[in-house]
């Protein structure tokens, strides 16, 4: 509970400092509150005891051995469908409040509650990165598939965050790939410190070492085509981009920053960089 309350307090502090970010930060807080039951449970929505160090150790070992993210190695059968459904309704309620197409989304929830859609199948698709299933859901329920993906992702997020919190440095320092070693998502943000660049996953909170000259989107490592933009009024932030694929990464330079930037909020706090990147003709990962 203290961890959740601490995150909410940090968000409220940023809202006071940067009121222009109120809307996305308030939405972030509402999702955290909707996840409360999962976040406060020992298993984070699963039947596993994450205090058992051998579970994390084995998953980490298998991830490094197979070069696959930990999430892809999880079996959806460990997730409790009753707790997931309860949280799913709460998260969907946040989007109803924010103006989502209510009846279409409610129909999707009803299908899951009735068992006609197996919630564990949806969870498994998120764990494996199967976008096709969500495209099918979107077409069937006339709803944005990205929204459905986001809602189902929110059900596993507390568990994946717990795993990320308990992995050790061997995974972070040996991974050396762009996708997150814990959840498999390609980061849009990074932190730079002591001439090292760490890719930051704003979904699970994992942070892993990556080459300074690496495009997180296409894998380009040619220094002559990897460039950056820095706002004149905010040198602690920059945009690293690839001239080949035109995708970009938002970077927080901790050596130049005079204030701590809360974890998991990097994407929201650097939202101005998205505008700079768009004006430069760059594409978000």
Summary keywords:
FdhE-like fold; 285 residues; 51% helix; 13 helices; alpha/beta
Overview of this protein structure:
By secondary structure, the protein is α/β, with parallel strands linked by helices. Helix content is 51%, strand content 12%. Strands 1, 2, 3, 4, 5, 6 and 7 form a seven-stranded mixed beta sheet that branches. Strand 2 (196-200) and strand 3 form a beta hairpin. The chain starts with a helix and ends with a strand.
Task: Write a brief caption for the model.
With 285 residues, the protein is of the alpha/beta class. 51% of the residues lie in helices and 12% in strands.
Write the layout of secondary structure elements.
Elements: H1 2-17, H2 22-34, H3 36-40, H4 53-66, H5 70-73, H6 81-97, H7 102-114, H8 119-128, H9 131-141, H10 145-166, H11 169-174, E1 189-193, E2 196-200, E3 207-210, E4 226-229, E5 237-242, E6 247-253, H12 266-269, H13 271-279, E7 283-284
Parallel strand pairs: 1-6, 6-7
Antiparallel strand pairs: 1-2, 2-3, 4-5, 5-6
Helix pairs in contact: 1-2, 2-6, 6-7, 6-10, 8-10, 9-10
């Amino acid at each position: 509970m203290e961890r959740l309350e601490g995150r909410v307090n940090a968000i409220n502090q940023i809202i006071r400092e940067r009121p222009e970010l109120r809307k996305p930060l308030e939405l972030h807080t509402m999702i955290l509150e909707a996840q409360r039951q999962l976040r406060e449970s020992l298993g984070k929505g699963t039947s596993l005891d994450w205090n058992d160090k051998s579970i994390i150790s084995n998953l980490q070992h298998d991830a490094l051995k197979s070069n696959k993210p930990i999430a892809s190695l999880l079996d959806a059968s460990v997730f409790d469908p009753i707790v997931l459904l309860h949280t799913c309704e709460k998260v969907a309620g946040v989007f109803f409040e924010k103006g989502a197409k209510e009846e279409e989304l409610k129909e999707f929830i009803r299908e899951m509650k009735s068992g006609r859609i197996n919630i564990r199948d949806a969870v498994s698709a998120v764990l494996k990165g199967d976008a096709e299933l969500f495209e099918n859901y979107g077409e069937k329920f006339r709803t944005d598939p990205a929204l459905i993906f986001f809602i189902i992702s929110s059900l596993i997020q507390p568990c994946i965050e717990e795993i990320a919190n308990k992995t050790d440095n061997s995974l972070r320092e040996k991974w050396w790939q762009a996708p997150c070693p814990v959840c498999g998502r390609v980061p849009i943000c990074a932190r730079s410190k002591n001439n090292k660049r760490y890719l930051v996953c704003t979904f699970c909170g994992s942070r892993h070492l990556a080459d300074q000259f690496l495009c997180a989107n296409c894998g380009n490592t040619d220094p002559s085509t990897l460039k950056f933009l820095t706002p004149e009024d905010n040198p602690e932030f920059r945009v690293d981009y690839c001239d080949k694929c035109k995708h970009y990464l938002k970077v927080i330079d901790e050596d130049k920053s005079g204030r701590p930037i809360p974890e998991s909020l990097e994407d929201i706090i650097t939202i101005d960089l998205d505008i700079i990147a768009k004006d430069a003709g760059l594409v978000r990962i």
